[in-house]
Amino acid sequence: MNTIQKPKIPKELPVLSFTEALQDDLIKEVVIENAVISGKLDGLRAEKIIFRNTVFTDVSFRHMECTDVLFDKCDVSNADFSGSIIHRTAFQHSKLLGLNLADSAMRHVRFEDCLAHYSSFSYSNMKHVRFDSCGLSESEWNDAVLEYTDLDACDLNGSNFIGTSLFNMDISTCTFDHLHVSLEKLKGCRISPSHAVTFAEALGAIVT
Q1: Each residue of 7-26: pLDDT tens digit?
Q2: 78: alpha, beta or left, given left = phi > 0 and alpha = psi -120 to 50?
Q3: What is the Cα–Cα distance from 169 to 14, expressed in whole angstroms?
Q4: CA distance 140 to 109
Q5: Are 93 and 70 in contact (CB under 8 A)?
Q6: What is the pLDDT of residues 125-142, one digit of tens each?
Q7: Whole-prediction pTM value?
Q8: Which secondary-structure segment (H or E) carries 50?
Q9: Which of 65, 135, 61, 66 is CA-nearest to residue 95?
């Protein structure tokens, strides 16, 4: 079983505004809630943070270092987190539409009950990552490395896994009518009987 480490966040943290908490390129050990964050903050380091009911608008957090962070009921849609290092972090009950996590490294990260349609994980390197009950239609995963990565009860319709190995992946509980995959990289992927029709058609078979 894929065991995901939870963020290690102190129980008692001060509640501050983002501006008050930010020191140079570091923000740590605070709660940011009911806030709106915008702007270019590439290279930001976030440690032991809770973002709650926070909206990230027109945000660039490229090459961010994110450790022991919780995003709870946030809107991070269309934010650019590309090239980031994400460790022991959880996204829960949040909107991540169009979120760009391409070329990122993720370790012990959990996405739970999130809307992440059109998001990008291309060229990312994931290990011990789990997606639970997430909307991921039209998401991009091409040429990603997915090690100990779980997708459970997610909407994957139209997602692109071209160039990505699905060996040892279990997508049997996920839903999709079509999926873009490299057929030679499907070996060892666990699917449901209903998915077999989709992949048979991709191979050129006529299913009657």
Answers
A1: 999 999 999 999 999 998 99
A2: left
A3: 40
A4: 18
A5: no
A6: 999 999 999 999 999 999
A7: 0.93
A8: strand 45-52
A9: 135
Residue type, 79: A
Separation of first and last alpha carbons in the chain: 37
Checking if the pLDDT of 116 tops 70, the result is yes
**What share of residues in the chain are helix, strand, coil (percent, to 5)?**
10, 40, 50
Q: What are the φ/ψ torsions at residue 4 (nearest 5 degrees)?
A: -100, 120
Q: Alpha-carbon distance 155 to 174, whole Å?
A: 6
Question: What digits encode the pLDDT tens for the residues 51-103?
Answer: 999 999 999 999 999 999 999 999 999 999 999 999 999 999 999 999 999 99
- Sign of torsion over alpha carbons 128, 129, 133, 136: negative
Tell me how far apart the alpha carbons of residues 7 and 89 are, in angstroms, rounded to a whole number.
Answer: 5
Q: Which amino acid is at 144?
A: A
**Distance between CA atoms of residues 96 and 185, nearest Å:** 27
